[in-house]
Amino acid sequence: MKPLRILIAPSGFKESLEPDEAAACIEKGIRRVLDNATSIVRRMPVHDGGEGFCNALVAAKGGEIRPITVLGPHKTPIPSHYGVIGEDRRTAALGARLLDDNDRELPTAAGGGSLIHLRSICLDGLHPRLLDSRSGGQAIEMEAVCNINNILCGSNGVARVYGPQKGATPAQVHVLSRAMDNLARAATPVLGYDMSSAPGGGASGGLGAGLLLLGARLRPRVAAIDEYFQLQQTLDSGWDIVFTAEGALDSQSTKGKMTGEVARKARAQGAYVIALVGTISTGANSVYEDGFSAFSSILDSPLSLDDAIQQTASLLTSAAERTMRVVQVGLSLRSRDGL
Q1: CA nearest 176: which of 97, 118, 115?
Q2: Could you tell me which residues come within 8 angstroms of residue 43 by beta carbon, excluding any fewer than 6 positions away?
Q3: Among the four given CATH numbers 2.60.40.10, 3.90.1510.10, 3.90.550.50, 1.10.10.10, the one describing domain 93-139+143-215
Q4: Which helix or strand (DSSP H or E) is residue 306 part of?
Q5: How far apart are alpha carbons 181 and 260 in whole angstroms?
Q6: What pLDDT score was predicted for residue 275?
Q7: Is the domain covering 4-53+229-337 a CATH 3.40.50.300 domain?
Q8: How far apart are the first and last CA of the chain?
Q9: Could you confirm whether the keyword S-adenosyl-L-methionine appears in this record (predicted)?
Q10: So what's the pLDDT on residue 339?
């Protein structure tokens, strides 16, 4: 019997495991069931944006991580970092201004809802290299890797889709939706088009819209992952089973998230795709239509969120072992019946 070929391609579990750590846990669970003689196992962590993407990209391209202090929404210093690949050419502060009816700047600390009072957007203070028409030298090219399926406004806009997931009440979702509508209206004379349904405009809570205002090109995340980490090339190598994983599985998992892209691409190559997830939310069954063969929660008993975060590594390892034992039963039955 040929060795079972297994690819482990998880995303991360927020606040607990980075993708590479999740991949190691899954392999540990698999190896409790299968040895090297009966299986070929390879890890290929996938980064769904977020904290680890910068580190992974820099590592893949031989760059450098550099620390920096930035200001948060309440003007408090926050330690952060950025990656450098090739030459480091930082610019001055961006300088965009959001103005109300009295030409006063909106208070950033008031949150996204303050955009309800937005009347106009002033870009006169931008660094000249960010504006092609005003640049005296070489213009800056900005490319933003994001979930291109997220739009800013409407029933599928960022506030209505992701607001409830982040804990917003129905009243807050209504306010945020109006704010996004107002942002799109104010941006129209600046951009020359309506960005309310622009692909990627709703990415990262509307950050995509802000980047569009600065002239950025929004690029589908999966295209960048293919280029930087050879996702498609790896999936073309002929795998029997592909394990993926993320914190929550729901109807949005196949709408541009990396776990969904892995499932779609792997299934097209004939692999069976199994997802190990923290929580299974409304609409999760729809993922069967988009490449997933099976999914299971890693939780084995009722746990608080804090406890689940603390125990994610052991829970994921045990879930991988349980799942692999079920797969082994199926393989044994198939072999016994000569299928």
Answers
A1: 115
A2: 8, 9, 20, 23, 24, 27
A3: 3.90.1510.10
A4: helix 305-310
A5: 29
A6: 95
A7: no
A8: 13
A9: no
A10: 58
In the block, tokens 């590592």 appear at: 59
- Measured between alpha carbons, how far is 243 from 262 in angstroms, rounded to an integer? 9
Phi/psi for 242 (5° steps) reads: -120, 120
Going from the first residue of the chain to its last (339 residues), give the mean pLDDT of each consecutive group of 10, the final group possibly shorter.
90 87 95 93 82 74 83 79 66 63 74 78 73 53 84 92 86 92 91 92 88 86 80 88 92 79 91 94 86 93 90 96 94 74
pLDDT at 131: 61
According to DSSP, residue 134 is labeled: G
User: Both tokens of residue 119?
Assistant: 């009347």
Contacting residues for 212 by C-beta, under 8 A, at least 6 apart? 187, 191, 195, 198, 200, 201, 218
pTM flag (> 0.85):
no
Cβ neighbours for 92, distance < 8 A, ≥ 6 positions apart: 127
**Whole-number Å distance between alpha carbons of 2 and 24:** 24
Strands 143-146 and 217-220 turn out to be: parallel
Supply 200's token pair.
């990627």
Residue 17 is given by DSSP the state B
Listed in order, the ranges of the chain carrying CATH 3.40.50.10350 are: 4-53+229-337
Question: Residue for token digits 């052991």?
Answer: 314
Q: Which residue has the tokens 């209206």?
A: 185
The rounded distance, in Å, linking the Cα atoms of 214 and 197 is: 17
For residue 249, give Cα distances in angstroms to 127, 255, 285, 288: 41, 11, 9, 12
